Amino acid sequence: MTLKELISKVDFESLVPFIEKTEEKHLDSIYEYREAYDILRNMKPSENFKGEATVGWSGKGYGDKQWIGVFHLDGDDWEDALDKEIVIGKNVNLPIEEIAAKCLWEITYYGFTPEHEGFECILGRKIRDIRYLTDTVDMTSDLLQVRTFMGKFHYLWQDVFQ
Known about the structure:
Elements: H1 3-9, H2 12-22, H3 30-42, E1 52-58, E2 67-71, H4 78-82, E3 85-88, H5 96-107, H6 119-122, H7 133-136, E4 143-148, E5 151-156, H8 157-160
Parallel strand pairs: 1-3
Antiparallel strand pairs: 1-2, 4-5
Helix pairs in contact: 2-3, 2-5
């Protein structure tokens, strides 16, 4: 099922308990999540876009406790993200509403509307072609540092291009 199909199967009220669990310190953002949900419900997905977003376990490689997350929805054009196939990983047994809430959290990671600054915007929308990164980012560093409205984030290059 695509993200568009998933979002179309659930109503926002059924996502709220899962969003509140994730965002317990930022419950004032619930209205922005509602706006993002409404935008996604009414937005037409890209035609013929091929891509996948995965729902799976994470954290083990970093020594953290494990959690279930959604990967590869943040930073994309929302129209493209809506056309991505949602792939559920092994041993992931969550209700569809919780998966949809996690997808909503992931797609809004850099902003609550398509116009907000996203990962590709920060790099001039050239992340899909690594040749262009040498012009915009210090490739000699092991870390990619990204500043967003939420603060500064550090990523290992190997994680960005998996």
